[in-house]
Amino acid sequence: MSDITHGGLFFAEPMRNRKFVTMMDGFQIKYGDTITGLLSVAPLMSEVIWVTSTLISLGVTMAVILDLSYSLSIWISAAVAIVYTLLGGLYSVAYTDIIQLILIFITSWMCVPFLLISPASVDITTTSFNYTFQPPWVGNVTADRAWIWIDIFLLLSLGDLGFQDFHQRTLSASSSATAKLRCYCAAFLIPTFGIPPVIIGAVAASTDWNQTSYGSPSPSEQGQTGLILPLALQHLTPPYISVIGIGAVAAAVMSSTDSALLSAASIFSSNIYKKIIRPQASENEMRWVIRASVVFFGLLGTLLTFLHTSVMAFWILGGEIAYILMLPQLVCVLFVGFSNSYGAIVGFLMALLLRLLCGESLLGIPPTIHFPGCILVDGIYVQHAPIRTICMLVSFTTILLVSWLTSLLFDRGIMSRKYDILRIKLQPIPQTDLPQTGLPKNNDENNLEPLCNNAGHSCPQTESSC
Length: 466
Prior knowledge:
Elements: H1 2-17, H2 25-31, H3 33-39, H4 41-65, H5 70-88, H6 90-116, H7 146-158, H8 164-171, H9 176-193, H10 195-205, H11 228-236, H12 239-277, H13 283-304, H14 311-335, H15 341-358, E1 375-377, E2 380-382, H16 387-411
Antiparallel strand pairs: 1-2
Helix pairs in contact: 1-8, 1-9, 2-3, 3-12, 4-5, 4-11, 4-12, 4-13, 4-14, 5-6, 5-12, 5-13, 6-10, 6-12, 12-13, 14-15, 14-16, 15-16
């Protein structure tokens, strides 16, 4: 909810007023085509990874409740998402999301009463702080894990600001006021959609699973907590209610999958293909590029689901790309006038290297840097320091320091202009003689011009059909 509020307060208006098509358009204006193309790989990967995590969540749920194979469930889900994103473009995202959100709200709340009256479960208020069938479902934050919770809170609160599919909604709005209104409404509505999942989890923690068709030991003891939603629907509700529940899950997943697909296609077509690969591409060619991109990134995300079946692993990977690598970059592009290409490149590489050195147990990467509080648990090192936020702040600080230092060196003549290979500040020349390089005229944020003004090609996100 916090990131949506921040998006409405600080990001929606400047990006919408400059008529950006994607969040990378500001990079294109300030840093040029080549640097933006390289940086665009990060948001592309985060969107593809988001497609993967949503497909896994739906595939696992369908496999449990409908007794379908995992592979078949994944391919069916991917095919549906790709087809209706191809047919409708941004309209499929906008209008189907409305239908899907209504379905989520109605069907998820329909499941709650049946879960609460299940004979195998007891009152969730009695198990909130007391050990009954398993540990209480309301936990506590110990001192040694406080920084981990703070780190996750900041990731959840600010991480979405580095996703293109978040800004896709505001950039496609008819006005800045409408864009901000969408953010404020979403900040109010999202918590209400989170209530049923919390209740389902609480009921599952208050259930004697030995009295259900699932049997003993419980899902938590078998390491199946990631499947608790479909398991609860399958074993604690009537069959027809579990089918309705899978409909709610499918609606929730599809509303995310189509957004991620179109976001990835928009970044590739607008910021890479049109600006670097084929600047002379026609409108019709761009439409086909968008179609092909949706199919390609959809298939890529689908194939990744067979490398790992953990939603959490992909969720963490995609969220960290957005939070650590892209959020500091976007803030500097929009709000720091002296940031330049050198700072962007060094900050990006520094954050990436530092995060890899911190390790990630879910991805099987051992830590090289052991921050204070790093301990060995069951043969795996666990970092108790807020490593994600540390990496993000290091990235932001590096961008500022390197940008300031390089600007100082070139502006004061300490280093010759011939070494300014990225041309962070061009020499004043007549407007008519300015070569069409795609590089910015200067680094002043106030001189940013709208990138997409219908001059020669269409804006991918505003197409009525792909």
